[in-house]
Design a protein that fits this description.
Layout lengths: L4 E3 L6 E3 L12 E3 L4 E5 L12 E3 L4 E4 L14 E3 L4 E5 L12 E3 L11 E3 L13 E3 L7
Parallel strand pairs: 1-3, 2-4, 3-5, 4-6, 5-7, 6-8, 7-9, 8-10, 9-11
Amino acid sequence: DYASSIYGSGLSLDGPLSRAFANFTELEYLELADNNLYGTLPPEWGTLTRLRALMLTDNAISGTIPDEYSVWAAQMQLLALGKNELTGVIPGWLESFPHLQELLLLPQQTAAGRNTLNCPMANYSSWAPSTDYVLDGCANA
């Protein structure tokens, strides 16, 4: 299956995140923000080795950030997972993303929950000077 970009923000999509997106091996940009998507982040998406931007803000995604996503280090520029219900620890391997320009982990502001991520990263200076990181969703920020 071939698609380099999928735009689905604000379409009132309702349901769990689909593992099937992993079948789009050429996918570079996946935008599904501002919907009613829920469930955990599929580890299978770690096979998307060309992915440069993932925008999933404003959904009801829960669980942790899978270690399988560390393969995105070579090309990831935008990772927007804020305003969900994520838990756990922000993986230290995010520090090794040399092209990361935006990391958005804003807290969920609803009664249902909020990101409660712990942020052990200390070496933000390893990111490009233009990196815009918003870690307000971190439990210890």
